[in-house]
Amino acid sequence: MTNLEIIKSTYEGKTSQENGQNLAQYAAEDISWTEAKGFPYAGTYIGLENITKNVFSRLGSEWIDYKFTPEDYLASGDKVVAYGTYTGIYKITGKSFTARVAHVWKLKDSKIISFEQFVDSQTVNDALK
User: Fold this and answer.
1) Share of the chain residues as helix, strand and coil, in percent rounded to the nearest 5
2) Entry pTM
């Protein structure tokens, strides 16, 4: 698979479970995952176990229908950028949000070595209040 196909497989599976399985299959053991400063889960997490605990588990338990809808992808060498829109409803407040976002992925030898999120965090944070 190409780097672009690998990244697409983490977004475009039939279910979120399939997307997660694809991420696990292609993630390097020491994958670095950075959530943007100002985002509710901001920080850099190393390894899929830490990413799952600090990001995915929280997204799954604290939000209703939280999702990223890709608009398009840009690929060049070992980098792939996916950009689109986040949407969801925060369970505690019942408030929904829409935010523009870009994800920058880096790969080496068909393994994902890093992810960095760029997002309009204000709309997400507004849903928390």
Assistant:
1) 30, 45, 20
2) 0.94
